[in-house]
Design brief:
Blueprint lengths: L2 H21 L2 E7 L5 E7 L2 E6 L8 E6 L6 E7 L10 H15 L11 E4 L3 E9 L10 E9 L2 E9 L4 H12 L2 E3 L5
Antiparallel strand pairs: 1-2, 2-10, 3-4, 4-5, 5-9, 6-7, 7-8, 8-9
Length: about 190
């Protein structure tokens, strides 16, 4: 094998191993959606999850953060249809995320925030990434925000991170991309 090919293989292996901790040890957690089935998320074992269930059967919010170390935070809210409305379709989700991005633009370093598609085996949605122009002490520098449809529910999500937490942000997007919904009939 040529020296260049060996170096390239070594570099590829090193890059793969560097990303492995964020995606390796995880377990599927089931979150009850108050009569609307369960949300299944594959959460890294070194993260902690807390679900906040409002009264009256309103949609819950799941908060994810590390058990120790970095200060990132992930907030995921499940949304289901409340008659006479339906769960947002793809164009409505895109419009909601575009509106949120427009609202965040004035405070962002980027100025114009580009929508990115998020597609998984059971999900389809959009998100944007923004850098806070002047985060106050104790606030997060980076925001990743979006919404996706998973089965018969929608998820809105916010990922808040600081420098050095890029791997956690990618892991959070991946667990949202791979989210699954089991309806009440299947539970």
């Amino acid at each position: 094998m040529a020296t260049g090919a060996v170096k390239q293989l070594g570099l590829s292996l090193l890059l793969t191993l560097a990303w492995l901790p964020a995606f390796s040890a995880s377990s599927t957690q089931h979150f009850d959606l108050a009569g609307h089935g369960e949300l299944l998320l594959s959460i890294p074992d070194n993260w902690r999850s807390v679900i906040k269930q409002p009264k009256n059967g309103l949609p819950p919010t799941i908060r994810l953060h590390t058990r120790s170390g970095a200060s990132f935070e992930v907030l995921i809210t499940a949304i289901w249809a409340i008659p006479p409305n339906d769960v947002p379709d793809n164009s409505k989700i895109r419009s909601l995320v575009a509106d949120a991005a427009k609202s965040a633009e004035p405070q962002s370093v980027e100025g114009t925030l580009r929508l990115r598609e998020l597609v998984g085996p059971n999900s389809r949605g959009y998100y944007f990434f923004a850098t806070d122009r002047a985060p106050a002490s104790g606030e997060w520098k980076y925001l990743t925000q979006g919404a996706t449809r998973v089965g018969t529910i929608a998820l809105t999500f916010t990922i808040l991170t600081n420098d050095g937490e890029e791997t956690d942000a990618k892991a959070a997007l991946e667990l949202i991309r791979l989210a699954a919904h089991q309806s009440s009939d299947a539970v």
